[in-house]
Structure formats: structure tokens, C-alpha cells
Amino acid sequence: MKNNVLRSLLGLLAVGMSVLARPFPARSQAMKMAMTKPVKVAILVYPGMELLDFSGPAEVFSNARDVQVYLVSTGAKSLATRGNIVHLTADYTLATAPQPDILVVPGGPMEVVTAVYRTPAVLAWIKQADQHTQLTMSVCTGAFILSRAGLTHHKSITSHWSVVDSLQRFDPQAKVLKDKRFVEDGRLLTTAGVSAGIDGALRVVEELRGHDEAVAVTRIMQYDKWQPGQGLVLGKSGIRPPAPLAANVARDPVCQMTVPSKDGPQLAYQGITYHFCSASCRENFRRHPTQYVKK
User: Fold this and answer.
1) Could you tell me the CATH superfamily of domain 36-234?
2) Buried b (16+ CB within 10 A) or exposed e, 138-157
3) What pTM value is reported for the model?
4) Do residues 267 and 279 lie in contact, with contact meaning Cβ atoms separated by under 8 Å?
5) In this predicted model, what pLDDT tens digit does every residue of 226-250 receive, in sequence order?
6) CATH number for the 249-291 domain, one of 3.30.70, 1.20.120, 1.10.10, 2.30.170?
7) In whole angstroms, what is the distance from residue 165 CA to residue 152 CA?
């Protein structure tokens, strides 16, 4: 009797462990089905940088489809942002970082930025990486770093409102513009101060994956301040055309997650079948479809 009970308990435990070991089907299958070659976004990080300068673009890119975000430190992997607000560990150093498709250089207080652009190894790495990027981007005073690397010469650029005149003196070969949320000039994109890095990153997502994808990211972030018209686009972009979703993949209209279109929760509305990552998202859609369907 005891042996039978023990065998039953062990059997139930084995079943439970096998269930827990399985990945959640909607998320794991969707990721596998939707996965194409990811766009690699490297964000250069250094001690004393402005927190939102790097975390804003990181949040945008990490919510975009098929985009891989990683941090590259100018020195030691462990560092802290301005005022020791956040301590973080970078994924790579300059010596070990893989070549990015998109390079993002955040800003910070001028004394910190000055120390960065006076470091020859940092400038050498930026120049080398920029030779193979689709686009190189700065946020706020990060434009000074790109300028010292020679990437802003003969380009239209911008930065934080308080330093645009200083930036013009710093780089007389550039045309520094005021009152622009971001300026994209060919393969270079510079943004105004701090939160403008979010807008610049959304512009890049729009080019990488299309306008609908950028809007989807704003919904995930609940960021309702994005106005593409506040930026300026000049020249021919280096961004490659957006990749469409695979034929067997759909996007959950509620949470914006990519999901398999062959199985999983579904619901028809006005002649269109929508696919969902979970029964919860389907129920939210059923109750308030007009919140999630484009007019």
C-alpha cells in the first residue's frame, strides 16, 4: 500500500515537473516563428552618463521586434550613472563587443563627456564601429563625443538646448540646429536632450520595422508624446527596408506581442480574425475592441 502511494506521488511530481519545464507555448513558439536575423543595437555606456539618455533608447529598442540590445562599456563592465542613481553591468567592453548595426552614444554632464571624448581608445572604437553601422545615433551631449570622433563634420545635428551654441563652436564644420527633437542626416541621427532619445529611437524603429511597429512600441511603453514631425530628416538613410512579419506570425492587438497565427486564442471581429498570446488578452479585446482596432 505504501509503495503504491509512493509511486503515485512520484508520478504526479514527475508530471508537474514536466509541465513546469515546458516553455509557455504562445511566447516561445512566437519567438521562434517570428525570429529573423536580429538587428544588433549597441549602446555605449560610461560612468556618470545620464540615466534616461541610455535607458530611454534601450526601452524603445528592447520592445521592438527582432532587435537585440546590448551595452558596451568604455572601461570596466561595472559602472554607475550620474549621481550613482543606477549601478549596472555592461555586456561587453570595447575589446569584446560585437559589431553593431545601430550604435547609440548617450550624453551626460559636460565634464564627464569631455573625459570620454579625450580617451583615444573610445574614439577609435566609435570610428571603427561606425564604418559598418546602418546608423549611428547620439542622445543629448553625446553629440560632442561623435563630433570629436569626426562623425558630425558637414552634417546637420542637434543636442540639448543649453549646449547647442557650445556644440556649434566645438564643431564649426557642422550645422547645429535648434528646436528639433531629433535630426537625421544620412547615417547619423542626433537628438535633443535626455527624453528626446526616446523619439530618436522610435524614428529608428520606424525605419527598421515600419510605422506600425513604432506605434506598437509607443503603446507598450504608454508613451504618448511621440510626434515624428518634431524631427528633421535629411539625406538618404542607411537603414535597410523593414522586414515584414513571417506568414505564420501575427501580432496580438492588445499587448503587441508576436504570436503564432496557426493556433492559440483567436477572435473574429468585423470580418477579421485576430490572434492573441493568452485568453486574458482575448477577453480584453472582446470587451473593448474599438480600443485596439485601427479606425
Assistant:
1) Class I glutamine amidotransferase (GATase) domain (3.40.50.880)
2) bbbbbbbbbbbbebbeebbb
3) 0.75
4) no
5) 988 899 999 888 887 766 666 677 8
6) 2.30.170
7) 15
